[in-house]
Hints:
The chain has helices at residues 2-29, 38-41, 76-79, 83-90, 95-102, 106-112, 118-126, 140-148, 173-179, 213-228, 232-288, 305-312, 320-368, 399-403, 406-413, 418-427, 429-451, 481-486, 508-515, 544-556, 564-570, 587-607, 671-680, 700-708, 727-731; strands at residues 180-182, 210-212, 372-376, 388-392, 467-468, 493-495, 540-542, 574-576, 633-635, 652-655, 668-670, 693-695.
Amino acid sequence: MARRTSARLAKAKAKKVKLDKEDIYDDLEHDANFELTESEQEEEQPPPRKRQRTATKSPKRTPRKKQVRGKQGLLADLVNMPIDIFTEIASHLLPGDIINLARSNKFFRNLLMHRSAMHIWHGAMKNVKRLPACPEGMSEPYYLSLLFSKTCSMCGGAVRGEMDPMLLVRLCGPCRNANLTPLYPPSEFMNLLPYSHSIAPTKRRLASAYVLRADFQTLMDEWKERKLSVNKSALDAWIEEREEMVDKRREQAGVLAEFLGYREFERKVELVDIKAARRSEIKRRLTELGWTNEDMDISWGSVNRCIWDDLISQPKPLTDRSWTNILPKLTSILGANREGRLNAERDARQRARRARLLELVLGIKSKHYPALGFKVLYPVPSASLPTVNVSHQPPFPDLDSTLEWSIVKRLHETDATMPEMEANFEEHREEIEALIADWATRAQEHFVKLLGGGPEVQGDILRPTTIVCDDGSDPFFNFSDDLKRLLRADSLFYKTTTPSSIRQPLTYSAVFSDEGFAGSRMHPLLWTKSFRPSLDLDKFCLYREAQDVARALLADMAKPDASYLEMKGVGPNFVCGRCHVTDYLTWEQLIQHYLQQNQLCDAIQKTLSSLSDPGIIYNNVHDLVLDTDQPMVKYFSLGDSDDDTNDWSSRPQVCKLCEKLPGMREVSAFKPTMLRHLRDVHEITTPKVDKHYATKKMTRSDLFDMIHFDSDDSGNSDLSHWGCGCEYDTMFDDGELEYGHYDDDVDPGDVFDYDDDIPEYLFDSDEAENDWW
Length: 773
């Protein structure tokens, strides 16, 4: 029997505690009259004591201290405090503090929820800036709980969202689903019931406005009651009353929304201030530990920037405990940032030394290795062209080569100030100049040695014919014999690293300028770390085949001992005098053209015997020993109207015999040139149309290609007739006559602008119905 009684008492006690906990929210949120119920005024009856066990305990064992709650706990000082002192303290608290105190235990709940404590709530409300007055029909505790307590108005659960100023509730997710109902406009109840657009169930419907289900049900009950009444004036008065209530609620909601927005802004400002104070305190402590502002300046591109911000910009004050936890992480980040900053500063100082070192090296270049300038006349007297300025730049080591020397490398890598570096450079200037001179001498001797394997030069090494001197003296008088040999127009080399099929002849000047060893890379913007290897002289060899072609061309031009500078002065204005190719070529391209055509002819001769048409003849018009009255090379001239050049008023022709040769590209030219090709190459003196040659079928793109390019087989079709950008090109860029055209009255853009009777072969099959041009 005693056991049953004990069980009932325990169960009743648990139930009573649960009811007490629920009473807290009931008192704060639903007691609009601010009165206490009788159950709350009753004193809590303590449960009967349990019988003490008779078993003896060891006297040496210390009894466990009993945990005391309620009035004898942590709030004992406040409970035993005189009421006037407590009231004075409460007048300085915020509403949230009063709410938490009222929910702490029954004593403070009974004290603060009594009508006599209303002045405490009013005093707390005065401590909140811009707080609106309590709405009518709502108690101060409920109103303040609605604003400052993150609890649900229905169930008392935790809520993260803000209150709804129109419905005057703060609801959690389940309570929103249970207590909200949609109100679909247009509705006759829109002006009779407060509704909100900012609150919705967790699964939002199509409705944009929601009302409280209880308010809606109350409205419907009142509406039905008055609708059944025959008193229409009473219904109208009720509707007017409801509309006034809704208007007042809407006006009040605007004031509350403004207050909530102000509190949100104030909270953000408070968080900013808290973060700023935390950052300031952390930086102060780090400064005391020896870290500098530069160490604490974490750049945005750093991988540790986000971690750094998370540690120092938290919205909570810095405590000793949190400082102990974050200090190792901060130290790691600051150490990495300091190391990176020091490395960046070291690299910046090295770049500054590198730039200054470049200026000093360029000073040596301009003083001891200046470019040698010459004036060259155009070889055609009738052209009436002014002289062209050309220059020869002696070889000079590039940046990577100078950095391989221990002296320059030490100046570059030693972390010294600029004056110290300059002083060290001046101290070793003679040694650096000697290294540069030795490098230039070795480079020149290497190519002189390569020329020693070729045929010897008889008589004068250089005999210029178009280089002009003001005093009429020999422009190469002060040059050594080795340098004169290197500057000859027939001194040609090639790279062994390129395939023989695309091997390009290189002059002595082109070797160093193309590789960047003639000062072309000595520019401050190019003085950067490079992975390009230093100059490898062993990869250059004497190009004997190109040398033979050059000597044959020079002999044909009656300039056997001309210098490369004279050929450079002509520019891209050489034209082959033996074949149908009429491109304007440089000196190296002209030699390359003869080499390729000779290789092509050798390959064709090996396949002639296997052709189905044994009567095809293919003569090598580029043979160096060919006995003919045609010159090997011609020059471009503004007044040139040679019949062998492209006739702009005719249509291009195609060689039918060359089409039968395997591996032979299409040979197309205008009719005068095509007839000469058939006569010289195939020995056809009386060619027939459609048997030996035919008019070329052309598309629109072919027309443009024909105007701008010549369809040759030499692979040099990259030279445009519109000019090359050289000094001659800029001379005649006046809008009247483009450099690269013949001086006649034909506009190349209107060559095929026929008025009528356009042949059908000029059309594509899919373009016959469209305009031709």
